[in-house]
Amino acid sequence: MPWFPEFTTAVELARSQTRAAGRADPVGQYFTALNAGDTHILETAWPGHVVVYDAHQGEIRGRRHVRQFVSRSKSWLAEHHVRIETTNSLSVGGRAVVELLARVEPGSVGEVAWPVAVVAESHDDQSVVFRTYSSLLPVEGRRHLRSPILEPANAAAGGVAGRYQAALEAGDTDAILTTFQADGYVREPIGPHATHRGTEALRAYFTRLFSAGGGIGWQLCAVTDDAATCAVEYTCVRWGRHELPPQPGLAVCERGENGLLAAVRLYDDIEPPADADAGYAPDGATR
After folding, report:
1. Edge-to-edge, what's the strand order for the sheet holding 180-187?
2. Which one, of 178, 172, 200, lies nearest residue 259 by Cα?
3. What is the pLDDT of residues 7-53, one digit of tens each?
4. Residues contacting residue 216 through CB under 8 Å, at least 6 positions apart
5. CATH number (domain holding residue 113)
6. Rounded Cα distance, 113 and 130, in Å
7. Which helix (H) or strand (E) holds 30?
């Protein structure tokens, strides 16, 4: 059969192209698989192992479980008429961090804007790990307690992102305000409506945030920094005077042209202590 070598070459070419696409845009390949309900793209791009840490379904590993997860995710995305746009991305070494805004119709409440971040990490050409961070409060009306994803590491955020994290842990409102430019903002995990922009709004936000007796304790687990943006994966273990069950999250710190923070965008599902909620706006525009 003289066509057989040509056919084999074409198959191998298709596989190599899929693998190259996976390395170039792993999160794009991930969502292509979820929308299609088909893991073929992922298994071709990463023939070794694919592991997913999902905000809703937890840790998924093994081909059979990943296939079940992808199938369930396709159904959920279709049922809720989800539309996804990429808002920011950075990639350093074998790790890519992609910020997304999903438009979701969760039921009778109408469409909501749902921030989601996905980290794709691959240390070789064979395997990949996807870690998703988000709050499920906007789409399910309640938060989910998650187990930690990563172990604490000898990681440190550099420059102004490091100063922000230190001031956050200390509960020092004045110090944290010095890390932001005049029109800088914090966007909470629950959506764009919970954005605090400018010095006075930030002062009010952090004063409330620290009202439970002090700052917020993060154990840093991984830092991805391309000089313009710093993404910190952390485990939150303390809020003011309260020890918390360790819970994972991600913060994206975007630097402005003056070197100060233009934005901090948060992705987690951490329930604040009751005394940190005092004075929060009744419309839910808070953590």
Report:
1. 195-197, 180-187, 261-268, 242-255, 229-239, 216-225
2. 178
3. 445 444 444 555 555 567 999 999 999 999 999 999 999 999 999 99
4. 168, 169, 171, 209, 236, 238, 239, 240
5. 3.10.450.50
6. 22
7. helix 26-36
**Claim to verify: residue 37 and residue 89 sit in the same structural domain:** yes
- What is the C-alpha separation between 26 and 7, in angstroms, rounded? 27
Is 239 contained in some domain?
yes
Contacts of residue 54, Cβ cutoff 8 Å, sequence gap at least 6: 60, 69, 132
Q: Which residues of 94-133 are buried (b: 16+ CB within 10 A; e: fewer)?
A: ebbbbbbbbebebeeeeebebbbbbbbbbeeeeebbbbbb
Cα(117)–Cα(85) distance, integer angstroms = 11
**What's the structural domain count of the chain?**
2
Q: What number of residues does the chain have?
A: 287
Q: What is the pTM of this model?
A: 0.89
Residue 13 lies in a domain: yes
